[in-house]
Amino acid sequence: MKATWSTKNLALTGIMGGLAAVLMFFRFPLPFMPPFMDFDFAGLVEIIGGFALGPMAAVFIVVVKVLVKLVLMGTNSAFTGEIQNIILSLAYVLPAVWIYDRKKTKKTAVEGMAVGTAVCAVVAIFTNLYMIIPFYVKLFGMTMEDIIAMCQAVNPAINGPLTFALFGVMPFNIIKNGAVSIVTYFAYKKISVHIKHFVSK
Description:
It contains 7 helices and 2 strands. By secondary structure, the protein is mainly α. The longest helix has 40 residues, at 161-200.
């Protein structure tokens, strides 16, 4: 069923965006991963909303999530972290939703989420190395060596930018989006019934 945009769709995407923002508060670091990267399940709401309502809804959910987070918590990165959050969220969700929309089956859902996970992991390397890290280096008067030392304290395999990408950024995003994908695989069907019933009433 193709979702049509209506007041209900807008209201639902707003609610889902708010729920994703709430899930961002329940975040925690992962063992052996860079200490400034936190795991949360906000992507679960984004991917379910995208599968049920389409790519436009996914974009709105991601944007609303970040806006709600800014209202409630503000920013400690001059919006750089929030921009990266939007980029990485969309890098995971949009490929998954586009692939799933072509033929809505469990197989295409799995394929879409696998592709989205891979795309996000690659994009995350570039956003971290060329946007986030340089910004924090300048903002806090740090050096790249300081960042690497922080990461090496929790993972001795990280000793430079390349190993930071291979043993820090990439596995973190694969684990995070992989976990979201697994939960989505088992939960989507039950949740989507209620979403579609709400928008079609």
